[in-house]
């Protein structure tokens, strides 16, 4: 690295990066796709999510039938999220109703609900959902819980001793609720993969195809810097995409970033580095833009969709595929982003995933720079 | 073949028994020649004769298998970086960026050869003036006709005043008038002391060179001034010389103008 930094000239480097930006900015169609795609994907996923929770059929199984339970049920009915059917049902009936798809949520008030609330200051409600569609299940539970919390807050205003109603939530079929709100981290890992791997690979291969790579290799400009400066616009583009995805998810979809934004960006940079390195590697191994694109799409995007855990739960896969999924960088990035955004996890709990991602980035960067030939053959 | 200078300073390209093997295939087979400073040296051969491989070795794009070569006084094995600073190169394929304007291309290539902003400014103005491209300076290169692109490409290749410029079939697909204008640029460069090493398919262009070498199957089969070669083979033009020499070729197609 010493000889590089010695001969590194700021001005040369600056000329090169500026030229790369011209390339990116002049190709308006591609630029539109690159910036529009994450927005479109987030909106599509977001709308698919919000549309489903209007007028959902739920069953209220009220074993208490006292003022408190009736009050909560009325509030549920008053919201436009739920169509309520009051009926005493057994667990078996609930399960069969889920299987038929006639209801999405069951709300069960135990007997003496009001009594335990007023005497013991604490009562339980059971919420049972069909979590085979985790996004819907999560949203329904969130809405139901917030209505219950509102009622609780109202009660507490009237009484000095705080009451607490504890919703006991049971997510059937998918207890860890994999996939809930996960489309934001999922879209992030996909988009970054796409922008970094495919666009970088294509832009380097394009120079080979048009013959300008020869000119660059004959110039005193360091070949390594050719590669580095070609990746810079895509690094910046990717970070802008991260920002726009996060803005959309926080302000439009109410998917908050519970953890540290700084950590999120640091981890994203790590993932972007891994993806850019992959892009460079593909560009070195291919001779045409078409080949680079095919390999990026089939060889990179497909495994990312399959094995990141975004679309298909990895836990449900056969063991060999589960093992295979470990070599997909997107899987680790997806886990990290999901933890930071949704659970608000810090680095203390994510150091293992971070180390894996970092090792991947370093490994990919090393092999791609090593395999880059400074001479044509 | 006369006046060979004793002074080695005058030789900008010295090649001795230079070879390139690709596994069992011998692309370039022990070629030996010298080029003097300011000379226009034609490097002829049928397709597949090994011209491009040879030129790539001289530019440092490809490592030789054996033999010696010094370019601008630097060794091709050990001093590739110094060689790169002292040569210009224009490849067979058109070698400017189509989606950049004329000025942006000049600035970019000047920039990666380390020209300062001040140098870039004056060089750009001069180059655009010389080529009469004032009105096109802010246009994308893709909108220029091929002939202008080639002239611009050549001017950009010698923007940093290299000692030697390597031109690999620079006039492919260009009309005769533009080719003539292109050669005027080459003559101007040679007068400024830039050595021109040019490969071509066009035999009329071979006549413009001071000396030419003809490569057949990786070997140099003839090397002299065009007039000496015509005399030696007792034919009226370079076309006939080329045919006489190249017809024994084992590889490539034998039609030089193809």
TrEMBL record, chain A:
Protein name as it appears in the record: Multidrug ABC transporter permease
Keyword match DNA-binding: no
Annotated ranges, domain ABC transmembrane type-2: 145-375
Example of a GO cellular component annotation carried by this entry: plasma membrane
Pfam families tied to this protein: ABC2_membrane_3
Species: Pararcticibacter amylolyticus
Example GO molecular function: ABC-type transporter activity
Localization of this protein: Cell membrane
InterPro entries linked: ABC-2_transporter_component, ABC2_TM, ABC2_TM_bact-type
Coarse class of the protein's main subcellular location: membrane
Record membrane topology: Multi-pass membrane protein
Family label: Belongs to the ABC-2 integral membrane protein family.
Transmembrane segments: 31-49, 183-205, 232-253, 259-284, 291-312, 355-372
Key words, A-Z: Cell membrane, Membrane, Transmembrane, Transmembrane helix, Transport
UniProtKB/TrEMBL annotation, chain B:
InterPro entries the UniProt entry points to: AAA+_ATPase, ABC_transporter-like_ATP-bd, P-loop_NTPase
Domain ABC transporter: 13-242
UniProt entry keywords in alphabetical sequence: ATP-binding, Nucleotide-binding
Any one GO MF annotation of this record: ATP hydrolysis activity
SMART domains: AAA
Entry keyword annotation includes DNA repair: no
A Pfam family this chain is assigned to: ABC_tran
Keyword Transmembrane belongs to the record: no
PANTHER family in alphabetical order: ABC TRANSPORTER G FAMILY MEMBER 20 ISOFORM X1, ATP-BINDING CASSETTE, SUB-FAMILY H, MEMBER 1
Designated name of the protein: ABC transporter
Record organism: Pararcticibacter amylolyticus
């Amino acid at each position: 690295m010493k000889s590089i930094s010695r001969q590194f000239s700021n001005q040369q480097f600056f000329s090169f990066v500026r030229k790369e930006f011209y390339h990116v900015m002049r190709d308006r169609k591609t630029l539109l796709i690159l910036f529009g795609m994450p927005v479109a994907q987030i909106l599509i996923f977001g709308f698919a999510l919000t549309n489903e929770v209007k007028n959902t059929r739920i069953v209220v199984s009220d074993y208490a039938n006292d003022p408190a339970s009736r009050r909560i049920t009325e509030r549920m009915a008053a919201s436009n999220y739920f169509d309520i059917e009051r009926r005493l049902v057994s667990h078996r009936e609930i399960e069969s109703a889920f299987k038929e798809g006639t209801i999405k949520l069951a709300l069960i008030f135990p007997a003496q609900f009001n009594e335990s609330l007023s005497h013991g200051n604490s009562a339980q409600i059971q919420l049972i959902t069909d979590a085979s569609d985790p996004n819907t299940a999560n949203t329904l539970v969130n809405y139901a819980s917030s209505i219950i919390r509102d009622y609780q807050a109202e009660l507490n205003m009237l009484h000095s001793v705080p009451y607490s109603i504890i919703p006991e939530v049971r997510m059937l079929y998918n207890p860890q609720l994999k996939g809930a709100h996960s489309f934001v981290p999922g879209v992030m890992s996909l988009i970054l993969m796409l922008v970094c791997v495919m666009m970088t690979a294509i832009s380097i291969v394009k120079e080979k195809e048009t013959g300008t790579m020869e000119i660059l290799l004959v110039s005193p400009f360091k070949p390594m810097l050719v590669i580095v400066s070609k990746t810079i616009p895509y690094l910046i583009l990717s970070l802008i995409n991260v920002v726009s995805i996060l803005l959309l998810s926080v302000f439009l979809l109410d998917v908050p970033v519970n953890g540290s934004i700084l950590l999120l960006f640091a981890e994203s940079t790590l993932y972007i580095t891994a993806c850019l390195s992959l892009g460079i590697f593909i560009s070195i191994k291919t001779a045409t833009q078409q080949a680079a694109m095919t390999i990026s799409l089939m060889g990179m995007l497909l495994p990312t969709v399959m094995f990141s855990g975004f679309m298909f739960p990895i836990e449900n896969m056969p063991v060999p595929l589960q093992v295979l999924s470990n070599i997909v960088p997107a899987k680790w990035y997806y886990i990290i982003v999901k933890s930071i955004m949704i659970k608000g996890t810090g680095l203390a709990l994510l150091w293992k995933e971070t180390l894996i991602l970092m090792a991947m980035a370093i490994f990919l960067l090393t092999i791609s720079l090593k395999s880059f030939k400074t001479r044509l053959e | 073949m006369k006046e060979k200078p004793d002074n080695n300073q005058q030789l900008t390209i010295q090649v001795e028994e230079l070879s390139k093997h690709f596994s069992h295939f011998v692309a370039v087979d022990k070629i030996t020649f010298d080029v003097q400073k300011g000379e226009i040296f034609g490097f002829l051969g049928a397709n597949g004769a090994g011209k491009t491989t040879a030129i790539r070795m001289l530019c440092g794009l490809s490592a030789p298998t054996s033999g010696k070569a010094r370019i601008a006084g630097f060794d091709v094995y050990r001093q590739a970086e110094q060689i790169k600073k002292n040569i210009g190169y224009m490849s067979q394929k058109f070698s400017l960026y189509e989606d950049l304007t004329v000025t942006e291309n000049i600035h970019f290539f000047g920039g990666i050869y380390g020209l300062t902003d001040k140098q870039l400014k004056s060089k750009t103005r001069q180059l655009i003036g010389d080529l009469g491209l004032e009105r096109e300076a802010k246009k994308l290169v893709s909108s220029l006709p091929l002939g202008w692109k080639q002239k611009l490409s050549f001017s950009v290749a010698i923007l940093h005043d290299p000692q030697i410029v390597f031109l690999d079939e620079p006039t492919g697909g260009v009309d005769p008038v533009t080719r003539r204008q292109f050669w005027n640029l080459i003559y101007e460069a040679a007068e400024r002391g830039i050595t021109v090493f040019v490969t071509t398919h066009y035999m009329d262009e071979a006549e413009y060179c001071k000396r030419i070498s003809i490569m057949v199957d990786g070997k140099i089969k003839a090397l002299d001034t065009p007039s000496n070669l015509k005399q030696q083979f007792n034919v009226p033009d370079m076309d006939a010389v080329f045919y006489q020499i190249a017809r024994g070729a084992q590889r490539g197609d034998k039609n030089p103008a193809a």
